[in-house]
């Protein structure tokens, strides 16, 4: 079940807007390879208990919701039953009831009251609990639109943006972030996070100049927050990692030329710098950011490995087929460590599965990358085993390559 979060506070704590109260919860967070740290969720705030208290634009108490599979009642009574169902872990049933409250209010043809907006928001929380992340994102988007001009829209917009990151939807994220950052009630920590999300979108689009400016703004904002929430603090170095990863991937090793050595050195330096940024994103202990950062690091190892083993043998090692075969074996032997490093990191990431609270698409992505690496490692070991060379032969070939290239810039 999703963790409850206080209404109208910094959106770094989850909450369910209830009129009956909520149960206490504990969330486990862990950095990659580190120990889990318990953090008690804040006590939930109460939602408005009447149309008048909720600032309703019409007399909702007179509207009766009738259904075939549930008791009839006023929107307030149905809202209360939905809240109890959610607390009991029946998110599917709760969502149906919250939706009925919203429908009942919208039939009046007037803007939603506070009760209606809370029901719409809680229905989105139910979708998150049901691991229907795209549906939850779309519901938050509607909740933000229906609550436009109110403090309710800020929280819904923030959740929309975060779920865009979960489902890797840069197009929607690019639409959401300007709306969030324009909110006057947005806490500084959340503002830094949104600025960092803007930087990641720009990096993914290849606009590294804009990405760097947005990152600079995010770093300046987060520096002014005394104790930033983990997900705020993680987003900023993660964005720095995304920019460095984009620079890394922009350096292509082929076609191989006299600048190969410089290009490989640049790739390795960008990889190292990006890895350090991603590790910084893991340190605050937000599980989702830790998983994403781990997947990104492993993926960079994969990309570098795949490009290196695909480098053709230079003329000095291409005189015979045996020369080419031995060169290829040497490259696989030398750079197999990249696959092993990637696999080790992914194993650490996958240990965090179950600590997120709801299913993370990034865990599925991590599993996919792991399968790719396991297959690649097995194929390489099998290919090396079939060769008529010992590891000493391959090591000697690597020494030969090193001596041949002393002072040069070829593989």
Overview of the molecule:
With 411 residues, the chain is mostly helical. Helix content is 62%, strand content 2%. The chain is built from 14 helices and two strands, in the order ββαααααααααααααα. It has a two-stranded antiparallel sheet.
What is the ordering of alpha helices and beta strands? Answer: EEHHHHHHHHHHHHHH
**Oligomeric assembly:** single chain
Largest sheet: 2 strands, antiparallel
Tally of contiguous helical segments: 14
Instruction: Tell me the span between the first and last alpha carbons.
Output: 53 Å
What structural class do the secondary elements suggest?
Answer: mainly alpha
Fraction of residues in H or I helices: 55-70%
Please tell me how large the radius of gyration is. 26 Å
The coarse overall form would be elongated
Strand order, main sheet: write it out.
Answer: 1-2
Low-pLDDT ranges: 3-15, 19-62
Tally of DSSP β-strands: 2
Strand content: under 5%
Mean pLDDT: 80
